[in-house]
Amino acid sequence: MNAEHRGTAMGYSRQLERVGPVSVQTKLFYAAGEGPGAYMNLAIGGLLLLYYNQILGANAAHVSTALGLALLLDAVSDPLVGAFSDRLKFKLGRRHPLMYAASVPMGVFISLLFSQPSELEGAMLIAWLLVFLVLTRLTFTVFSVPWSALIAEFSEDYEERTVIASYRILVGPLLTAISGFLIYTFWFAGSEQFPQGQLNPLNYESFGPLIGGLMTAWALVSTHFTKREIPYLLVPEQKPSTSLSEILTLIYSALRSRNYRIVLISILIFFGILGTLGQFDMYVNTYFWKLTGEQIGIIGLFTIIAPVLAFVLASSIQARFQKQHILSFVLLGQMILSMAVVLFRLGDIFPPNESAFFLPLLGGFSIAGTFLSAVGAMIVFSMTADLADEQEYVYGTRQEGVLASGVAFSTKAVSSLGVVIAGFLLQYFVGFPAGSIAEVGGQPSVDIDPDVLFRLVITDAVIVNSLILIPAFLIRKYSLSSDQVRDMQNELRGR
How far apart are CA 219 and CA 202, in angstroms? Predict the structure, then answer.
């Protein structure tokens, strides 16, 4: 270790040394922590803009600005929470106290987000949206950042870290697919007046409490049933400082790693793109593909096979290729799939909605896209755990929380910009009308000008989507190999 870094080195120890791999039970209960994020993404990422813009009639640019600002504030909190978590020393360890503390509040806040007083409109409606968006995201961060950091502490084995990440990726998309199917099929079921149930205002009345209850339940399950692992987790041998200056110093020090900077910048660009594309998804599904709530749920159910495939193939993929090459391929594959499905429909190659092949084919594209997403997420989580070893090897400090929060910060900070851009594109470039379900002759009007729809899907599938080429190229410059990680771990054990 360099002399200039010796002063920052800190000793870490465990109450118990693990013998053998992490149990399957622990891996499953850890992976259950994907639940809160899955439900929050379904609600905020999938339905919130549609709800406030199309049903409540709020300006899309104003709603997306509130979404982006809340996400930006949340992003700033990520590294602070991560560094604070790294420096804790309690009977329940460094991670579990924060996970317990956040579980109930985040469920309450997201419930209120979809339960606005009926008399609110204009600026007051946007203010309500902003306040409870910020509170929901901040409390979710207090849970998710310490929870994400656990993956680097459960195991030091290069391959097993990918296996633990694969459990996480198995559970998350499965929960999303099954819950999405059930919610869209039964909660957002179509009616005679509203064949597309996601446009029925009555379906949202108890949606918030449902999502809030599910987020809290899964957070408590993951926290409580991984508590048994606390004796095996690393803790500082001395009570470290948790001052703001010390925390900011730790955050800055994490950026000294070239590999970490490459991962951050690649993720930063990708999630900026994804932040824009994600806001278009429900509009494209509802108005371009003309899907009902039940059909959206069925397509989600198709994707159940994707995380299972990713889980089964994780070890063999990892054994054959370096992580950065896998991630580059994943990004390029996602870009091509997203372009192809829309261009096939515009070119009249894709079967019409009435065809028996329509849903299965659209579901096939969703399976492929979800599979690539699952593999990509698995690789990023595993990379972050490897980078924690690199940080300790070079600088003598374990920073699992800072590294995990740095990834979260990148995704949220730039996604916030992508969300804002999406709203402005919808409002001023695509020209999508607000309040499209206004009553016309006793029936809801959902007819959208074909030119508006064309601008919507071209912006989504081609203009914005093609920018994924940039992170796909950058991530190939990551240089930490499996052999290097093993060599570092051997030397760290010797120290």
Answer: 28
| Residue 121 counted as domain residue | yes
CATH of the domain at 256: 1.20.1250.20
Residue 195 belongs to a domain: yes
pTM for the full predicted model = 0.68
How far is CA 177 from its chain centroid? 14
Angle 131-47-334 (CA atoms, 0-180°, nearest 5)?
115
Residue 436 domain-assigned (yes or no): yes
Q: Specify if 35 maps to a domain.
A: yes
What HEC string does the chain produce?
A: CCHHHHCCCCCEECCCCCCCCCCHHHHHHHHCCHHHHHHHHHHHHHHHHHHHHHHCCCCHHHHHHHHHHHHHHHHHHHHHHHHHHHCCCCCCCCCHHHHHHHHHHHHHHHHHHCCCCCCCCHHHHHHHHHHHHHHHHHHHHHHHHHHHHHHHHHCCCHHHHHHHHHHHHHHHHHHHHHHHHHHHHHHCCCCCCCCCHHHCHHHHCCHHHHHHHHHHHHHHHHHHHCHHHHHHCCEECCCCCCCHHHHHHHHHHHCCCHHHHHHHHHHHHHHHHHHHHHHHHHHHHHHHCCCCHHHHHHHHHHCCHHHHHHHHHHHHHHHHCCHHHHHHHHHHHHHHHHHHHHHHHHCCCCCCCCCCCHHHHHHHHHHHHHHHHHHHHHHHHHHHHHHHHHHHHHHCCCCHHHHHHHHHHHHHHHHHHHHHHHHHHHHHHHCCCCCCCCEECCEECCCCCHHHHHHHHHHHHHHHHHHHHHHHHHHHHCCCCHHHHHHHHHHHHHC
The domain in which residue 397 lies consists of 21-230+242-494
| One-letter identity of residue 83 | A
Confidence of residue 6 (pLDDT cuts 50, 70, 90): very low
Nearest CA among 377, 383, 415 for reference residue 34: 377
Q: Is the pLDDT of residue 162 over 50?
A: yes
Residue 13, beta-bridge partner list: 235
Number of domains, the chain: 1
Compute CA distances 495 → 6, 205, 259, 489, whole Å: 13, 58, 23, 10
Note the pLDDT tens digit of each residue in 262-301: 888 888 788 778 878 887 888 898 889 989 888 888 888 8
**Cα–Cα distance between 127 and 366 in angstroms, integer?**
35
Phi, psi angle pair for 440, to nearest 5°: -130, 110
Closest to 55 (Cα-Cα) out of 204, 207, 211: 204
Q: How far apart are the first and last CA of the chain?
A: 10
